[in-house]
Amino acid sequence: MLTGTRYDVVVVGFGAAGAAAAIEAADNGARVLVLDRGYGGGATALSGGIVYAGGGTEEQHAGGYRDSADNMFAYLRREVGDAVSEATLRRFCEQSPAMIGWLKAHGVPFRGGQVSSYKTSYPTDSYYLYYSGNEKAHPYADHAQPAPRGHRVVAPGMSSGRVLFERLRASAVSKGVTVLPLARVHELITDEDGAVIGVRYRAMPLGHPDVRRHSALTKATGKVGNWLPGLVKGVVGRTERLWERAAEPGEAYAGAVVLAAGGFIHNREWMRQYAPAFLGISPLGTAGDDGAGIALGVDGGGYTAKMGNVTAWRFLAPPSAFLEGLSVGVDGRRIANEDLYGATHGDVMMRCFGGAGWVVYDARTWRKVRAQIGDQTQLFQRLQLLHLLTVGHERATSIEGLAAKNGIDPTGLRRTVDEYNAGILSGAGDPAHKDPEIAPVLGRGPYYSINISADSSLFYPIPGLTLGGLVVDEDTGAVKRRAGGVVPGLYAAGRNAVGICSNSYVSGLSIADCLFSGRRAGASAAARMGAISACSSTLSDEKHAEIATGRLTSVRRPRSRRSTPGSPGRN
Ligand SMILES: Cc1cc2nc3c(=O)[nH]c(=O)nc-3n(C[C@H](O)[C@H](O)[C@H](O)COP(=O)(O)OP(=O)(O)OC[C@H]3O[C@@H](n4cnc5c(N)ncnc54)[C@H](O)[C@@H]3O)c2cc1C
Hints:
The structure is a single chain. The protein starts with a strand and ends in a 15-residue tail after the last strand. It is of the alpha/beta class. The protein folds into 3 domains: about 5-45 and about 160-205 and about 245-310 and about 465-555, FAD/NAD(P)-binding domain, CATH 3.50.50; about 50-150, no CATH class; about 315-450, Succinate dehydrogenase/fumarate reductase flavoprotein, catalytic domain (Flavocytochrome C3, Chain A, domain 1), CATH 3.90.700.10. About 35% of the residues lie in helices and about 15% in strands. Flavin-adenine dinucleotide binds near residues 13, 36, 42, 185 and 508.
């Protein structure tokens, strides 16, 4: 049995939410232990490192962009819906410039300035600020003044997420936070009153001879596994067996536990149960996104919501000319204005068009797509474009011919094209309200189409991640009980919890929510420990002494952790 010192706060999971919680708890005087089933980083380190922020950040000012907390709120209210209360969303918007300041104070670099003149889902290395959501698209632009809020961490290519996490890791460690990697938490320890006082885990000792191999295999499969999980399944299984053979049980005690163990996109059973429409998408994240943290919270007395909400990323741009086509379903009906954020457009396709869709282009736009690649794309985007522009498209001399090649209803497609062209030519505009600057007449053939369906190709997957989780008190991050009140000593953050992005994700909103909710949980957890130390009214002196020494004897063993809780809650 691995035993350690007793801590004030134990954090389960070391991604953006866990790091924010650990730093905030340490800043509030807590002794913090972080346990991570991997080496730390999670989906955060694999991410694009976009942080959604506004309300007048220094980076927005540097580019001459005006924004305010009210304006940001007006936009986000439409994205966020009922995921959090108005008061919480307001606080999120009001604190937004300071959140970027907080990150910078922890060494995370940002750069403001002008945004690119074209729409993109991820900027090239010339830009670190951009319109990362639906700000300029119908109907969102009718409700708030568009402002660029995608703050990308300064780092080349797709390394922004890694830099974001490593800076936070370094800061946490410098504050005395203890980090135990390869430690998988499987059970909460509660006292007879149901208060959470620690965790049980299994960890691969760092001195074990297989750790080097484990580390090498993990590194080799991380990024590839993120985009093409099927390709590295065997190696991931080998890595898992190395861990399984070496892992030893351990316990850690604390006054509070923060669950920050990510989402559940890799839990196929839960996906089948909660989000069957999204089973065809490619899971985005790490093997740790199996819902373990959420299951721990449910076992501890919490409940879940928004579990059926998944963000499915079908980005068309870059190149931006890809937005100039018409997206249609199998019946030829228009899916939506193509300048919507890729996941918003993808959500309409997944929910209302059975996950099947195509985008149709005329010859002029197809040429334009090719011409823009050099200026508008990153290397990782070019690999996918290579597929689309070589074998991954259909071509026909007529609209009806293109419909036939794809199995689209030709009458429906013809109607959509005619209505669209009539709107543009008459000056009435696109019936779907696409930005006029990227809504040219669909002119002469040959015509081209790309298949944007969920299962279109191994080389053109729709990746996605889950947005639901444990219901928390929005002032403290404490895990709520369905019957009322909270589970004493238990907090949740990031994709373990319902948060700002739980209804709708736009680029940067998940990490911004992880930081917001992680800091909130860390501060509350530290405050709870402070309250326990200052006043023994919550615990008897005897029990306090036992907790303080890690020798608590009267621990009620909770039900053993289930990988799939029977009925985690309302969704
Ligand atoms: C390729 C990619 C690009 C993305 N780009 C962006 C972006 O630019 N902006 C944005 O906002 N969002 C982005 N996202 C989404 C975003 O990265 C995640 O939603 C977010 O980072 C989740 O953070 P988290 O702290 O909740 O979880 P994670 O960062 O996944 O951290 C959870 C940690 O918990 C650990 N863990 C799991 N189970 C256990 C257990 N039982 N015991 C101990 N530890 C455990 C895991 O090993 C992991 O390290 C992207 C995601 C991906 C995959």
